[in-house]
Specification:
Helices cover about 50% and strands about 15% of the residues. By secondary structure, the protein is α+β, with helices and mostly antiparallel strands. A hairpin with a 4-residue loop joins strand 1 and strand 2.
Length: about 90
């Protein structure tokens, strides 16, 4: 996703959280904002540091979330580890 599109989507979330929405939706949107800002910063650092391969340590060391079609659930990966998502966020 290009930086401009990512920034626009982040601005849309910020605009949404500033409206009159219920408490649960506000918490969800706030969480998405935090995750998106972190992801944007990580991608920016990858571009800045020319991280071009998914096998590089900078990428492998990031906590990454994948949807596992076979398990029909989220899989969390970091370096050589793989963990089940247990809704601990």
């Amino acid at each position: 996703m290009e930086l401009a599109k990512e920034t626009n989507e982040l601005n849309d979330l910020i605009a949404l959280v500033r409206t009159d929405i219920d408490s649960l939706l506000r918490k969800c949107v706030n969480t998405l904002i935090i995750l998106d800002v972190h992801a944007r910063d990580i991608v920016d650092s990858f571009v800045r540091d020319s991280i071009m391969n998914s096998k590089e340590f900078e990428w492998e060391s990031q906590l990454r979330f994948y949807w596992d079609l076979h398990k029909d659930d989220i899989d969390i990966r970091q370096c050589t580890g793989s963990f089940d998502y247990c809704y601990e966020y």
